[in-house]
Amino acid sequence: MLSFESDYIEGAHPLVLEALIKTNMEAMSGYGADKYTARAKEKIAAACGLPEAQIAFITGGTQTNQLVIDTMLRQFEGVVSAQTGHISVHEAGAIEFTGRKVLTLPAHNGKMDAGELRSFLTDFYADGNNEHMVFPGIVYISHPTEYGTLYTKAELTALSGVCREYNIPLFMDGARLGYGLESLSTDVTLKDIARLCDVFYIGGTKVGALCGEAVVFTKKNMPLHFENLIKKHGALLAKGRLTGVQFDTLFTDDLYFKISKNAIDRAEELKSLFAGLGYKFFIDSPTNQQFVILENARMEELKKSVKFSFWEKYDDTHTVVRFATSWATTKEKIEELKKVLESVK
Q1: Adjacent-strand bridge partners of 171
Q2: Cβ(244)–Cβ(34) under 8 Å?
Q3: In a structure prediction context, what are the per-residue pLDDT tens digits for the chain, which is 345 residues long?
Q4: Mind giving me the DSSP string for 247-293?
Q5: In a 3-state reduction of DSSP, which class is residue 8?
Q6: In 3D, which of 57, 50, 70, 69 has the Cα closest to residue 218?
Q7: Assessment of whether the complete model's pTM goes beyond 0.90
Q8: Cα 3 to chain centroid, rounded
Q9: What is the chain's percent helix, strand, coil content, to nearest 5?
Q10: CA dist 27 → 34, 35, 107, 241, 246 (Å)
Q11: CB within 8 A of 343, min separation 6: which ones?
């Protein structure tokens, strides 16, 4: 079965697996106190242009979002997100499970608008009843967004400025960050993100690793005793080497960026393929997630040969579906898909 279901359906990049096998019999201290984890942190900090960055590794994106948000908030605070934000829609209430409220703002192609954020914060602090409300304590965005869209440097700078004005940290979910950084239309670099965000993470699970996300605190603002808090959330790996070895490999010789570019190159081919066959897109995504509007009968026919993700209902006879490329997608897979699409009428 041909699959474009997601960008984590393959295992790991061969060089990552090779590194895990090569280091397998080395006896290392646990919980990330090993030389590979230390080296990975140094390489990531250098790539961010922040030698003083504080970095931690978590095994998955939902754990990372929950941990960062829960540990950075005070008891009376919640997190501000776009309505379509991952934490608001597709994380099964993981944030609410910690007792934190997700405060939503309108989404514009998946993105939060800095002007609307400022209005929300201004109105909140002008409200005489705000002591009876959940205070906004952190702002959450993702890059790319749930719809594969990207913030421009100007948009990110504006959001960062509002957060600075109100002394609220800006947190970027970077589960697919590599694909955002390698997009043909982006003007945002990793160093820009490190400069403008208070905390963000570099996704590995969807970008060449078996598992793992690298959380980067950019302002010496890692919560006190963060390792203790990770463990309290049940997210501390005894064999911390697992993520350390992987990120050490991904950040050697620009591997992370090279394999991310492959996903973008294949996504561009995918877009051209669908457009050339007359398919309509739900949104213009510049990254590896492509959202196509399918007539329901054609969708059911395609399902017999190709895996893709349901996204949302478009109307009574059409559905929005997602096709995703990844670091592992080949030109041959695109050609196979072309044959299938041409055979489905």
Answers
A1: 140, 199
A2: yes
A3: 899 999 999 999 999 999 999 999 999 999 999 999 999 999 999 999 999 999 999 999 999 999 999 999 999 999 999 999 999 999 999 999 999 999 999 999 999 999 999 999 999 999 999 999 999 999 999 999 999 999 999 999 999 999 999 999 999 999 999 999 999 999 999 999 999 999 999 999 999 999 999 999 999 999 999 999 999 999 999 999 999 999 999 999 999 999 999 999 999 999 999 999 999 999 999 999 999 999 999 999 999 999 999 999 999 999 999 999 999 999 999 999 999 999 986
A4: HHHHTSTTHHHHHHHHHHHHHHHHHHHHHHTT-EESS--SSSEEEEE
A5: coil
A6: 50
A7: yes
A8: 21
A9: 40, 20, 40
A10: 9, 11, 48, 10, 17
A11: none
Q: Which two tokens stand for residue 334?
A: 């695109």
Closest CA to 105 of 81, 77, 121: 81
Place of tokens 């394999």: 259
d(CA 50, CA 42): 10
Q: Is 92 left (phi over 0), alpha (psi -120 to 50) or beta?
A: left
